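Running low. Any example?
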Amino acid sequence: MTKYVYEAIPTNASAAPRYFEIPQDESDAPLTKHPETGEPIRRVVLGGFGTLSSKPSTSGEKDAGSSCCGPKCCCG
C-alpha cells in the first residue's frame, strides 16, 4: 500500500493546514474527508526528481531537465 500525503483544509483563513499520511491503494480515488475525524482534506502532490528547464542543450548531449536534447541523443 502507498502512503499519500494529505492536508486538512482549514476553515479559518489564518489557520495553517495540518499534514498527515494515509495509506491507500494506488487505484483508490483521493479522499475528501479524513477517515477518522470527517474533516475536509485534499491530497498533496509532492515534488518529483530532477529539474525543469526551457533552455535547449548546447552540447548536443541529453541534459537532464532540458526540453530539447539535441541530435545525438535517443529522445528523437
Remarks:
- DSSP finds no helices and three strands in the chain.
